[in-house]
């Protein structure tokens, strides 16, 4: 296996950091998977799964979103930008897709987004309508636009009160404060991520994980969430593109399974012909870091292979 890093150029001349994992003989690759990570984490956390993919001759790329990982400056973690942040992260996604297709012409391209990355991924697909062999959404959710508009109003008030770069503990508690309640007695503040305490500890000890995001990022993200949750938005995905939605039954982000079911129903209602839903019993938010992560990874690879054979 060959691993590499690089940078792509964002629309505003920023540098978007990415990682790739390739078969030793890149000509043996049968597909490419592009991964968009979640909030307050980064691309390297998908390395174990990427290695699984490469063993099956699936090349993998993953980039760090603005305000995250090596794309985000140390003092700007959790901040997309002062203006137009949502559009910028969608544009960055497009730049990576262009780079992938240039490096691997003719190969089928799959796109997977986890949590926040699943929302960015949908925003990108709805706006740019890329030619994908499949769309994979992990740890995701669906809610009506009015829910996100109401939350954005609170975020905007907090931004007005404290400024766009303020890291609001109040808003953090409002959004994530109840996530650990189901897992008492809690061993950490992030038990909701995984039942594998070793993986949770890795997250806690990682300086590029677990930071508090700015009021501006929340305003950007919630605006994006409202835009991708309309019935009209779902009609912009080509109905022939296969969709896989997966997550844990105990994931608070996915409303303990019900949010994943609602999301799958939205795609089916929009006329998408091939929608698969996989909910793992006892799984929490990060299924690729759960105790059964090897099984989950193999299931994802099997799904990808079924779409290219």
From TrEMBL:
<protein>
    <submittedName>
        <fullName>Alpha/beta hydrolase</fullName>
    </submittedName>
</protein>
<keyword id="KW-0378">Hydrolase</keyword>
<dbReference type="InterPro" id="IPR051044">
    <property type="entry name" value="MAG_DAG_Lipase"/>
</dbReference>
<dbReference type="InterPro" id="IPR022742">
    <property type="entry name" value="Hydrolase_4"/>
</dbReference>
<dbReference type="InterPro" id="IPR029058">
    <property type="entry name" value="AB_hydrolase_fold"/>
</dbReference>
<dbReference type="Pfam" id="PF12146">
    <property type="entry name" value="Hydrolase_4"/>
</dbReference>
<feature type="domain" description="Serine aminopeptidase S33">
    <location>
        <begin position="28"/>
        <end position="291"/>
    </location>
</feature>
<dbReference type="GO" id="GO:0016787">
    <property type="term" value="F:hydrolase activity"/>
</dbReference>
């Amino acid at each position: 296996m060959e691993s590499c890093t690089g940078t792509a150029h964002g629309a505003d001349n920023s540098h978007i950091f990415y990682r790739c994992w390739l078969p030793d003989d890149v000509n043996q690759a049968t597909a490419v998977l592009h991964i968009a990570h979640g909030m307050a984490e980064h691309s390297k956390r998908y390395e174990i799964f990427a290695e699984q993919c490469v063993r099956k001759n699936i090349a993998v790329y993953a980039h760090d979103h603005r305000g995250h990982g090596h794309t985000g400056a140390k003092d700007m973690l959790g901040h997309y930008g002062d203006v137009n942040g949502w559009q910028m992260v969608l544009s960055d996604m497009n730049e990576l897709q262009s780079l992938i297709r240039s490096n691997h012409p003719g190969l089928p391209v799959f796109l997977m987004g986890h949590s926040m990355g699943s929302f960015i991924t949908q925003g990108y697909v709805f706006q740019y309508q890329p030619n994908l062999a499949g769309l994979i959404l992990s740890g995701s959710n669906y809610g009506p636009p009015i829910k996100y508009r109401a939350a954005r109003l609170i975020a905007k008030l907090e931004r007005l009160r404290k400024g766009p770069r303020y890291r609001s503990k109040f808003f953090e508690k409002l959004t994530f404060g109840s996530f650990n309640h189901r897992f008492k007695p809690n061993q950490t503040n992030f038990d909701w991520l995984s039942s594998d305490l070793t993986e949770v500890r890795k997250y806690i000890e990682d300086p590029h994980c677990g930071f508090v995001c700015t009021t501006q990022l929340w305003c950007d993200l919630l605006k994006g969430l409202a835009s991708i949750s309309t019935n009209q938005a779902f009609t912009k995905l080509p109905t022939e593109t296969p969709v896989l939605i997966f997550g844990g039954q105990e994931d608070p982000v996915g409303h303990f399974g019900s949010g994943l079911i609602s999301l799958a129903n939205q795609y089916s209602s929009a006329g998408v012909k091939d929608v698969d839903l996989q909910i793992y019993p006892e799984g929490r938010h990060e299924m690729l870091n759960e105790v059964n992560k090897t099984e989950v990874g193999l299931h994802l690879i099997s799904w990808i292979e079924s779409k290219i054979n």
